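#struct-pred

JT: dropping the chains for the assembly here, can someone run the whole complex?
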Amino acid sequence: MISAIYSFAMTTGANRVVRGARIEHVCGDPGLGPEKDYAYGMRIVKKALEAITVPVSGPTLFDPHEGEAVHAS
Amino acid sequence: MRLELGSFPVRLIAFGDATRWSDGHLTVNKAAALAEIRRDPRIASADLQIAAPGDSVRIWPVRDVIEPRIKVEGAGHCYPGICGRDIATVGQGRTHRLAGMGVVEVSSVNWHDSGGDFVETYLDMSGPFAEMYPYHRLQLLCAVVEPDPALSDESRNDAVHKAALAVSDHVARATAALPPPEREVFELTPCDPALPHVVYIWGVHSPQAMSGSLTAFCTATYGLTQLTPPWILHPNEIIDGALTGPYRTAFAMSWTVANNPLFLDLYRRHGRDWNFLGVIVLRTEWTTQHEKQMIANQTAKTAKMLGAQGAVVTWDAGGNEFIEVVRTIRECERLGIRTVFLTSEDDATDGAPTMLEPLPEADAIVSTSFFKNVTLQVANPGSVSRVIGLDRKAIHRGSGVGLHGGADAMPPTAGALPPPWRYDDHYGFGSLSCIE
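RK: done, full complex below.
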């Protein structure tokens, strides 16, 4: 599940939760302009594809922002 | 801050030669009131009509119901800030209100065209559906207004609400020089320090995330509807209308905000049952988890800094706004502030909880019933003999059988209609009210 409210999503029974952008645009950010919006969306989707290849034993968060010093949202 | 509220009961509204109030009778000079609306060149058409309790009448589309209030002593104007009105801080001196009546804002103008929000409220004045709302007991003066369709969403919204306020001001002004038949003084007087310190955390929706606009119409604080940090308002500011505006659900329109029974009871019992500290307005519908948690943290911190030992929490929305509201409750409890939450409930489809994110800290909850008319099995209101407003009722998907069911339609307004999809008694007007 890709969700902007990811910690709540983890309480709903989803085993793999990918941190999305905002509620009104979960897989991107139109404020970034078309190119960066696309790149950001790809990053989230790739993280989601990666997530389904990883075995998990319970609700697990996959964060496309991982490794960043500052959170985008 | 001392405020005297003078009430002028209205038992009958009629059109006549001059606008005046006398012994419960409000006479309205229709031409003079319409002239005040038409002073705004953005208005293309305007009419005034009267609806009384028991009439076989349906009013559609209803964007707002306003209780006429006017400042007769002290700074500022009632309903400050909205539609460019004076922003002087209100809450002192004397205010007059026309009790038992409302000015109804009737127009086809939608909040915004970004999707998700649409005007859906209609009001009946007789029958079981009418009795579900406090408005059926009011004498209603309906301002049926259409602005120039070429204007922007925001300009049309501003023009229509300004027109309704012009009517409200026009009739309220009739009381300015009269002695009020009923008076009540509101003041946060010093009281026994042993009484529990209580704050009211009042969640109000912001349309900003859906509309993409900083000025889209909704319940406003001094005219602002955008996502803002928590506001601390003196309860007298609420009485003077610092929190007001048209709204998408019937139970958070201006009249219901001004007459919120929970708020009034909290205030009237100040110094006797508790020390009422004031109102924190919590703006809701933040759009990321960080924002929701941050605003919950900051609201709880604000309550703690005010000295709150207890907090009563309400909200006026549905869906994702619940997250910041319930997390505010959790953060209050973590800071040692005991909370009581007044809320409606969703249905329990497929075994889901009736509240989006049930948290163990929210352990004192007063339910005002399910919020969907389909869950409540509300029967379709029957036909009526008179319509105020538009002849056809736009039914968006979901009006009949839940948010995503049914089909769009445009049936005659006067015939049998499905109720609006949402019935949400945010402040306890129903039988589960806060009054003991």
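JT: nice. Residues 2-375 of chain B form one domain. Confidence is low (pLDDT under 50) at residues 399-405, 432-436 of chain B.
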